[in-house]
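Reply to dn_fold:

You asked what the input looked like. This is it:
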Amino acid sequence: MPDFLTRIKWIQCVLLTGALMLVSVFWLHWSANHALKTQLQKELPTKIHSALLNITDIGLRKHQLRHSINSDFRAQDNFFNSWFYTQVEVSLVNIAVKQSNHKYTGLNTFSMSDQSSNFPLTLEFKTQLKLNYPLIVLANFVFSVIFFTLISYLPAPLNANALKWHKKLKGYSDHLKDPALAKKTCLMTNGQKSLIDSLLHTEQLSAEQIETLINSLCYGSKNDLTNSQINTFIAVFPRLNHVDKALSFACHPDTLTLDVRHLCIYIKGLKIQLSKTPFIYYYWYAQQKRQDGEGWILNPSPSRPEKEAAKSLITLMQSLNGHAKALNDLREVGLKAKTLDQNRNKIKQEIVGCLSDEIAQAFLFETRRDPRTQRYFYRLKTPKEHIKIIT
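and this is what came back:
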């Protein structure tokens, strides 16, 4: 589509240049003839009077007048000096003893009368201008290049939709009054426009951040934004306070990646550094979810720690150089309900601290109650196909 529009613009430019050339040729021809006739009407009376001085015979007057004027004009090659004309010719074509009833309507002819003697004459002249076409074409080409270059730098007028966005953006801040921002907003998808519109109403972002977001959406991905992605951006931005990071987070798939070597997790592509012990417990829940697809782990009884359930956790602690105290408690006492509760709370605190509570919920824990023991099962909410572990 842009290539097609470019071709259309070039065709328009060529047609306009041709029209300018035709107009300029006609204007040069008309203006030169008009100026030439004006100049001749000033100079001819003196020339006519000089040519007819002391000549009384009418026939001789006509012959002498024709010879004198035509010779005089042929001798003046630079009578009408202009770069756009290669030759200017003026000739006397008719002499009438009385006022002529014949009117010349053409562009190149005119008549004038001499009433200075007993034999009033009407003289009819013909002018011929030869244009310097190569110079005219070159001048028009140079003018067209300059003209279209200047036009290309002028901003195009805003349409109704762009005017609406310009009013909204300028109302938010004078910093956003540049018409180019309104034009960029018009190029966005409906979802992207909805995001901008929502942010203008919530006033979460500064004017500079709104401008950055408009540029990111205009020059970035052309994929539309869903309502969920819009809500995610609005929810996470206050924590991240960075337009591109918040936009990337909102558009990223709902994946959870655990980097075991660096003891960090990536939620929707955003890196979150967890403390060592909470990370190990989070890793333990993620392993359970990936292994059986269910991932439910029953909390031990508050009064009776479970040593059997602690074995897999001890193995993880040892492989990741977990804290000695936490490792000793697991070996000597077993897995306690209080320990699990505390670490789940720490995990929640650290993740919610980087994201909003609303967004973090999809990557935290869900529960169900065991009807027999009245204790609770816990597992990660994230589907196992969205969990990736890098060791």
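The chain has three domains: 2-153, 160-251, 256-390.
Hope that clears it up.
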